[in-house]
Amino acid sequence: MCIPLWTLVIFLFYFQISHIVMKLNYAILLIGLLFVMSPSVFSQKNKFEEIKIKTSSQCGMCKERIEEALAFEAGIKSSDLDLETQIITVIYKPQKTNPDKIKKAISKIGYDADDVLADEKAYSKLPDCCKKPGDPDRTEHK
């Protein structure tokens, strides 16, 4: 049985095209994977973390002082001090700062930050209403 030449040519042409289409499918699949993966890669650069730190804050002046000082620290997006619990919630970029640096920054303002005690020089400059309970220099707001 003899196969006509034109049938063989069509078969080879179809084989070449299907081979090209298969390569294109692989290329499209790879490009699709890159698009799917790329947002997760980029989002890690903008990823923020949250930390809660117990402070020795006493009043609204303390809240303003701490939040304003942390606003100028590198990598800190926001901070919010709850005066009732004395806990500050800080949103930060882990690529730019870390919990130890944040606690040290709070300490340099004159307040305790978890286990990091307030810087003595900064603490002595705090208004009397911002001093810790039990401090003889502490006064209450009127």
Helix content percent band: 40-55%
Q: Number of DSSP helices?
A: 4
Across the major sheet, the strand order is 1-3-2
The CATH topology of the largest domain is: Alpha-Beta Plaits
Mean pLDDT equals 83
CATH architecture heading of the largest domain: 2-Layer Sandwich
Count of folded domains: 2
Q: What series of H and E elements makes up the topology?
A: HEHEEHH
For the sheet with most strands, the description reads: 3 strands, antiparallel
Tally of DSSP β-strands: 3
How does the overall form come out from the CA principal axes? rod-shaped
> Which CATH class of the largest domain?
Alpha Beta
Low-confidence stretches: none
End-to-end Cα distance: 112 Å
Percent of residues in β-strands? 5-15%
State Rg.
32 Å
Q: Which structural category fits the helices and strands?
A: alpha+beta
Can you describe what's shown?
The structure is a single chain. The protein has 142 residues and is α+β, with helices and mostly antiparallel strands. It has 2 domains: 1-46; 49-130, Alpha-Beta Plaits (2-Layer Sandwich). The protein is 49% helix and 13% strand. The chain has 4 helices and 3 strands, in the order H-E-H-E-E-H-H. Helix 2 crosses helix 3.
Summarize the structure.
This protein is 49% helix and 13% strand.
Draw up the topology in text.
Layout lengths: L4 H41 L3 E6 L5 H12 L4 E7 L4 E6 L6 H11 L10 H5 L18
Protein traits:
single chain, 142 residues, alpha+beta, 2 domains, 3 strands, 13% strand, rod-shaped
